Amino acid sequence: MLLTAGQVHESTQASVLIEGLTLISLIADKGYDNDRFRAQLAEAEVDVVIPPLGSRAVEIAYDKNAYALRNLIECFINKIKHYRRVATRYEKTSRNFLSMICLASAMIWLRDIA
């Protein structure tokens, strides 16, 4: 997890977030569809599952079945937002907020494996 300022789009941090990881495939939403990020993933030989933006002149093919798995991440984010301290950004410092996100994530993981 990586925190940014509220007005910063998360796609600006995508390269940093995957840095050092060994990826086979990457599933992301249309917000991550940009040529620079796609080129970085192609160079690393990662299978890209990102639907193209509607403004693209040329349609880019992607695996729609694999993209359906993105729903699992969306559900996880929704579960995190059920923790009031996370949803309302109750914590004042980034360090404490990130700690609460990690704690909520661990609690969700423990609940789901039980």
3D structure, described in words:
The chain has helices at 14-18, 35-43, 64-67, 70-80, 84-87, 94-113, and strands at 25-27, 47-49. The chain is mainly alpha-helical. It folds into 2 domains: 1-63, no CATH class; 69-114, no CATH class. Strands 1-2 form a two-stranded parallel sheet. β1 (25-27), α2 and β2 form a beta-alpha-beta unit. The chain is globular, with a radius of gyration of 16 Å. The chain starts with 13 loop residues before the first helix and ends with a helix.
SSE blueprint:
Blueprint: H1 14-18, E1 25-27, H2 35-43, E2 47-49, H3 64-67, H4 70-80, H5 84-87, H6 94-113
Parallel strand pairs: 1-2
Number of strands: 2
Summarize model confidence as the mean pLDDT.
88
Unreliable residue stretches: none
The secondary structure category is: mainly alpha
Give the N-terminus to C-terminus distance in angstroms: 24 Å
Short description:
It contains six helices and two strands. The protein has 114 residues and is mainly alpha-helical. Strands 1-2 form a two-stranded parallel sheet.
Considering the chains and any ligands shown, give keywords for the structure.
114 residues; mainly alpha; two-stranded parallel sheet; 6 helices; globular
